[in-house]
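User: Before I run my own analysis I want an independent prediction to cross-check against. Here's the chain; please return only the structure tokens and, at the end, one sentence I can use as a sanity check.
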Amino acid sequence: PSRNKRIAFWLRTFQSTQERHVVERQIKEMAIPLTTGTVCLLFLASTTGACLYHLPYEPSVFVVSLLIFNNLNIFVAVCEIILGLHILQIKDDYAKMRTKWRGNEWGACVAFLNMPLSPSEVFDGRVWSKLWSTYSLYDPSYQNQESFGFFIDFGNGLSTIPPTILMNLAMVFPNHLSPLFAGCVGVALYWQKMYGTIIYGLSFMFNRRYEGKTLQEVCLFVGVSNGIWIVFPILGIYAAVNILRDGNMSVFGEV
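Assistant: Structure tokens:
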């Protein structure tokens, strides 16, 4: 009898394992394919969704926009830390990509966003360093650790994650943070982001790094991507000044 029980147990285990494999295969077929682009979107959706779920008030477009920007900044800040940690690999990748994608830099951007990832590669800094070797096709200063662009972004990555999380907490838990502290941190944080972006843009133009690129490419890949870090920090400074003026978080919504 005990032998029969063991046989029955192993048969059930084998059957459940087969069923699990079938379910895993079905989930894999139904799931969103993991690429660098979809990972970024999933990060934004999950972090912003979690913040909105815990809001004690009805979110306005202003609050949703600032939350999305803050979470995007956290994602980019992690990539900026990777920029500093993997600069030598970025240099090597850039040298290869410059030859491969010369005259088709936009194709390199599309290829990066559609690059398939395994679950383990999602957390591999070497994979995400390709963001910077790709961006270097438009601005080679990002593969040069002596440039302003390299240091302003690496510095932002190291310094802006904690205060950005704090501003998210100010929106989600408005009655649990000091308005004076949150307002001061907010002004400093968003000014740093905006000022650094403006100086970078001037550096890009002054050094004529736009030469050899089409107007559309420069406007979209450099202008729009960096313009985000000017427009939304202005909204952040507006929120921080109102927090300091009012002594509360009512700029986000009435609790």
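Sanity check: Residues 215-246 form the longest helix (32 residues).
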